[in-house]
Amino acid sequence: MRVIAGELRGRKLQGPGVGELSIRPTADRAREALFSILQKWPVGGFLDLFSGTGAVGIEAWSRGYGPVICVERAPKALQLLSANAKGTGVQVVSRDVRRLPESAYRDLSVVFVDPPYEQSSELWVDLAPRIRGWLAPGGVLVWETDRQTELLKVEGWDLINSRQYGAARFHFLQTT
To answer: Chain-centre distance of CA 93, in angstroms?
Structure first.
């Protein structure tokens, strides 16, 4: 695993150990595709929820997004995230995403959410109303799921794109 582009291009990132299935980093190829699509939106504040190793947030920082905030609570993932973010401007927050208040963030260009796949639909319904208030006008939410999962229609959100990369699927949404 490595940073694809930007200031940290080529930097190796620590990943989970062999057999560690509770941490599922977004693959290099999928991250590269994700950031190619995100070029349509302005670079600004970037929030990475359920950050795991921090690969997506660190890639965002390397490409000029800022501030970049990565939120994770799992101890093993948090250890990897902290090690990977060292020496960058990425802010690491140790917190349960579900407990973030509506007033936690404002005016973000991108919110990237990569929850445990088996909880993705439930978390989408729970978090979508809160995330609306965190985005700047014209900002984008990217919700990662497994390739089979369709997100339920939630009031106030429009699905503008959906792309599949290997086992992952990115849903691009904007507020209405």
So the answer is: 13
The span from the CA of 88 to the CA of 116, in Å, is: 26
* Contact indicator for 30, 112 with CB cutoff of 8 Å: no
pLDDT reading at 172 higher than 80: yes
Quick: pLDDT tens for 31-69. Answer: 999 999 999 998 999 999 999 999 999 999 999 999 999
Inter-axis angle of helices 75-85 and 55-62, nearest 10: 20
Give residue 61's identity as a one-letter amino acid code.
W
Residue 53 and residue 48: Cα distance in Å, rounded? 11
| Residue among 162, 152, 155 at smallest CA distance from 176 | 155
Q: Which of 13, 16, 36 is nearest to 24 (CA)?
A: 16
User: What is the model's pLDDT at position 19?
Assistant: 66
Single pTM value for the model = 0.94
Contact 134, 106 (CB under 8 A): yes
Domains identified in the chain and CATH numbers = 28-175 (3.40.50.150)
